[in-house]
Amino acid sequence: MAVYLLPSWLATAPPPPPPLLMDSPSTTASDDEDHHHHHQGSDGGKKKHVMFLVSHMEAGCIIGKAGSIVKSMESQSGARINISRHDQLFPGTTSRVVLVSGLFNQLMDAMELILERLVYQGDQVIDSKATIALVVPSVCCGALIGKGGATLKAITQKASAGIKISPQDNSYGLHDRLVTITGSLDNQLRAIFLILSKLLEDVLYSIPIARIVFSRYPASPVEYENVGSDEHVGRYQNKVGPGPHCSH
Predict the structure, then answer these.
(1) What is the number of helices (H) and of strands (E) in the chain?
(2) Which among 148, 28, 32, 167 has a CA at the least distance from the CA of 92?
(3) Residue 80: helix, strand or coil by DSSP?
(4) CATH 3.30.310.210 matches 46-221
(5) Cα 230 to Cα 13, 70, 115, 126, 155, distances in angstroms
(6) pTM for this one?
(7) Which of 14, 12, 10 is nearest to 176 (CA)?
(8) 136 - beta bridge partners?
(9) Contact 47, 103 (CB under 8 A)
(10) Do residues 140 and 199 lie in contact, with contact meaning Cβ atoms separated by under 8 Å?
(11) CA atoms of 32 and 37, how far apart (whole Å)
(12) What PROSITE patterns does UniProt report for this protein, alphabetically (predicted)?
């Protein structure tokens, strides 16, 4: 199992102290049959990940007062949710980075909880055409696009979402591109499921990061390995329930 160093755009951040809060939950989503929006799937016991960008306001919304919201999301999903510090921004943007890690069903549970919180305010939709920008290694984007754009077109049609991949930009020494998804909560989740399913077929989709520093809360080093494909039962056909009000 390979352990990776911080990418160059986070290399200036000091290493985090030993973990004090928000350790990975000891139970997973599959341990509880009554888990909210439980996602079934065969994970093979391998850790997977997804990274995406959020604004400072959205980061605060996910973290919650004294970390209460993010800890609750970790407990409900079984996934680990890391958020970069306020001074650790994705190069060329004013956005912070969220890293979610765990088994595939845990990732999808966590993404559902996070997006619900960002898209809904009480029972009202804040933005019916919201966007989320996934951070994807440049070397994996070719397979995601497919020959003549066929793979990306198929994913776009199946998800009924708008999906755009940013041009490769080496000006910041980046080895990642942004995959921006636009659509309803349902469509975003379906697109994320399809994109991750495709990326996990690629052995190059390994995570170039050993740890990311929590906002206010130290993170412990996390080990990752290359992951294989999953056979996960899709379940993004119906609208999920409204998320909680995002208060600060």
Answers:
(1) 6, 10
(2) 167
(3) strand
(4) yes
(5) 34, 26, 22, 33, 17
(6) 0.70
(7) 10
(8) 177
(9) yes
(10) yes
(11) 11
(12) KH_TYPE_1 (PS50084)
